[in-house]
Amino acid sequence: MGGPNAQTATLLMHCPDRPGVVAAVTRFLAGHGANIIDLDQHVDRAEGVFFMRVKWELDGFGLDTAGFGAAFESAIADDFQATWQLHHDARPLRMALFVSKMSHCLYDLLSRWQSGEWRVEIPLIISNHETLRPVAEQFGLPFHCFAITPETKAEQEAREIALLEENGIDLVILARYMQIVSPQLINAFPQRIINIHHSFLPAFAGAKPYHAAHARGVKIIGATSHYVTEDLDAGPIIEQDVTRITHRDSVGELVRKGQDLEKLVLARGVWAHLQRQTLVYRNRTIVFS
Amino acid sequence: MGGPNAQTATLLMHCPDRPGVVAAVTRFLAGHGANIIDLDQHVDRAEGVFFMRVKWELDGFGLDTAGFGAAFESAIADDFQATWQLHHDARPLRMALFVSKMSHCLYDLLSRWQSGEWRVEIPLIISNHETLRPVAEQFGLPFHCFAITPETKAEQEAREIALLEENGIDLVILARYMQIVSPQLINAFPQRIINIHHSFLPAFAGAKPYHAAHARGVKIIGATSHYVTEDLDAGPIIEQDVTRITHRDSVGELVRKGQDLEKLVLARGVWAHLQRQTLVYRNRTIVFS
Amino acid sequence: MGGPNAQTATLLMHCPDRPGVVAAVTRFLAGHGANIIDLDQHVDRAEGVFFMRVKWELDGFGLDTAGFGAAFESAIADDFQATWQLHHDARPLRMALFVSKMSHCLYDLLSRWQSGEWRVEIPLIISNHETLRPVAEQFGLPFHCFAITPETKAEQEAREIALLEENGIDLVILARYMQIVSPQLINAFPQRIINIHHSFLPAFAGAKPYHAAHARGVKIIGATSHYVTEDLDAGPIIEQDVTRITHRDSVGELVRKGQDLEKLVLARGVWAHLQRQTLVYRNRTIVFS
Amino acid sequence: MGGPNAQTATLLMHCPDRPGVVAAVTRFLAGHGANIIDLDQHVDRAEGVFFMRVKWELDGFGLDTAGFGAAFESAIADDFQATWQLHHDARPLRMALFVSKMSHCLYDLLSRWQSGEWRVEIPLIISNHETLRPVAEQFGLPFHCFAITPETKAEQEAREIALLEENGIDLVILARYMQIVSPQLINAFPQRIINIHHSFLPAFAGAKPYHAAHARGVKIIGATSHYVTEDLDAGPIIEQDVTRITHRDSVGELVRKGQDLEKLVLARGVWAHLQRQTLVYRNRTIVFS
């Protein structure tokens, strides 16, 4: 995102590994006038799968979105059995933020948006509590509160989905949203919901990871940003990082130190998605650099 | 360990937290002529326990080991209900190394010993395979091979314990020893067996952690050195560290990158023990710095 | 800072190293009813200097500030030639933020304040540009702009100092303030001005460190928070951290990745000061943990 | 290196950036029957230079070394003004180790060689002191001692160069060799001498970096592996890493902690070279991953 990328397109694709894919794709793009500015590929030799990300300047490129689809299918995708996505980078993605009571990730994301560090739109903030409404208002953003009980969950989530769709949301960020999201919402945004979990998954999945980390006596704590799937805290990991702790750190200190990690790891995960660097395959991510 | 510490003593103690412990202990030591060169204390407020490590120069100190015990018991330990250990740092610890087929940790430990980086004695190496006998011979060390099958395990371990005791072993290092150690051995060396596990515990306990890490798609891998208890890979953690990986790393690459971590994390854990910096309390370690 | 610390006092002291200091101080405090909750000491053996930080609960403590000074001087400080500071932790520190055009550190500090993560007061923000006035207003804080030219610098800084003094400022944070601060301001707030420099000092001191890092081809970049002294970028370092980069990272990417480091390293440095964990001695800091 | 790579070739190239390079090279390789197993490219947009590393299986590839050169020149290199190197990975590289008195890097490199972790040959060890001869002998390697004084330096280095050439040395490793290497040796092995410097360059270049780091009061120390050029400690950086220190660490502790970093950073730098992942351009390295 950001100015320099505004007139570029990014192709993400994968297919069974076979000699000649890179040559075929680069010849196809060059033939249509693309000036490639980034190409990264990866072969998973154990799985026999080829992955590629290519980014090129649209200036001088001879195909529009519809034209690209038709031409790429017949020239490449059919032959190589490729699965692909094309992104025109000019349009900023539209993100919805889901929060509960803790504000550190919310402030961090809002400041990246408001300062222009990220070229992104945030049409709305959704919460299950009123607590952070003042923060949304301070940044001039609509705040929608949907209180959730076991009885109302299905209905409230249906209203949330409707709201997300009305607002043309591309990406949902669970910024320390303390509710398990149900399959209906997940399936409405497949591989487009990013969560931050406050541990180095798979250690300490579930509730109260800092308490569990303290009880186990670990010497490092971590945070993990991942795409949300129906298996709790088990979706494809985008980014992780850790920080060192000692016996001196109480649970309260773990929470304090961990919050700085959470902000950073969530922001890096979202950034990778915004940059179209991520590709999910069998519950793992390729994160092109 | 090492030259400058040769004429020092280290006291490790813990007791129920109560005002006046530091004052009482430092007054006691000063009264017997100790010049304190390091004092570190920690209060676990959740548990209400006080921990302390004090190190002093023996030159001018008026108590020998037996004298210290009697005097410290009556002046301090009885009153404060303290549990304590005294170590005279002049005597190098005697370590036994347990290995199987992988040599990276063995080479690393032997080079620290042979170069004099660590002031320690290694009277013997024990293995369940013949593979690393040439490395032991190259470094001039006795190598004892005890092949282990389910049927022979109890008997072979009994012979190992006898050998360890004959050699006056203080500390057992499982340097990628690929056998589960039984309670009889653990109980013969309580809090004196250090293992290196090739994951950031508690994630990926048990066998084949690099395969599990690859399958889960984590973005960091780790290693953990810990005291061995009867619960597999669940003993008190001494040290952990991690390294970043990407989707490009095959299981083989994780193994390769992980081995450098294992060497480092095991060495740091052993060093902390040699320096008498570690104190175990309820399955967690205090590691004084 | 924060709730649990509100009724505590912290003593920072250093003196020539001599047996018996810890015993004397802890006996003194215990004698006046202090319940010590944290004690950390350090002996710099090369310099022969003893450093200590002690924190205790005021509940039941028998001395007020004036009483402490007199009693501590006669019982301890005179005898041991100690230099000391006493802090009553109940009073939140008052910080002034100096900024220019970049907002990332400002947002980060303001969100820590507004969310209550830090118990601190921010009476005003000072800048040499109008750029960030909207951010100050959004957070409801006074914003004072002092445009600075070589001709006006002395006069403008004098007005800034007056404003800081009127507002009872304890601590000045240069949150990417792109002006060299003159000795008159430094001397008005000795060891009470914290700067963030966007490199791992002493590498790349001065202007444009990211450009210099890119030109040198380093594989890690860093950030440093330090107390400001008259030597540019050469004051006592409080905290540093680094992040890995590759040949793929343009100067623009270094700036983007570095800004996250700057926020974190500045926040950690300020936090250590707020917690009274820092002690400066001969251009180096002791940062008690 | 290692088994799986034995029947592969690696091409490293760079040229002025121009559309169509990737397509041309991959078409050329595919046309000669190459099965590409790794392709990584990078465009330095500021310099306008294109860099690429391609690795393919030799099984089924129709060109031998001489044939490749002629064909690649006429089909690609002439047209794109490319600078290139081709490496057949079957042949293990031959490394000479230069050491002085410190053994930690030497042990580490020798254990990687002897254990088979690295598929490499070490025909000899060269030193300016006799100190480490026993280590060489223990590993069964020739050890040549060339005492160096200002008067004998030119002559002794000439003998060293002759010895290196007689032994068909591909790569020289300065494993804490405490002598400045003169231009005649550097020019005999351009971009084929790797040094480990015990600081995070460019900070603390030159002698006694741990003393300088301690005096400056930094909170992290580092190590840097780099290609040696005529400018002392200023050659292209291959790898760097850091470790956190505190005020408690004496110069001796920095040395101890730093040695572990040095081993790791040197090994990673050498590994990258062995894997043909490094390409030097204008005093910076591209390290393909």
UniProtKB/TrEMBL annotation, chains A, B, C, D:
Instruction: Report TM segments.
Output: none
Q: Which reaction does it catalyse?
A: (6R)-10-formyltetrahydrofolate + H2O = (6S)-5,6,7,8-tetrahydrofolate + formate + H(+)
Give the Pfam families listed for this entry: ACT (PF01842), Formyl_trans_N (PF00551)
User: Active site annotated at which positions?
Assistant: 233
Q: Which GO terms describe its molecular function?
A: formyltetrahydrofolate deformylase activity
Please list the residue ranges annotated as the ACT domain.
10-95
Q: Which UniProt keywords apply?
A: Hydrolase, One-carbon metabolism, Purine biosynthesis
What EC number(s) is this enzyme filed under? 3.5.1.10
Name the pathway: Purine metabolism; IMP biosynthesis via de novo pathway; formate from 10-formyl-5,6,7,8-tetrahydrofolate: step 1/1
Name of the top EC class for this enzyme: hydrolase
Instruction: Output the superkingdom of the source species.
Output: Bacteria
Matching InterPro entries, A to Z?
ACT-like_dom_sf, ACT_dom, Formyl-FH4-Hydrolase_C, Formyl_transf_N, Formyl_transf_N_sf, PurU, PurU_ACT
Q: Which protein family is it in?
A: Belongs to the PurU family.
Q: Provide the function of this protein.
A: Catalyzes the hydrolysis of 10-formyltetrahydrofolate (formyl-FH4) to formate and tetrahydrofolate (FH4).
Protein name in the entry: Formyltetrahydrofolate deformylase
Give the organism, scientific name: Spiribacter insolitus
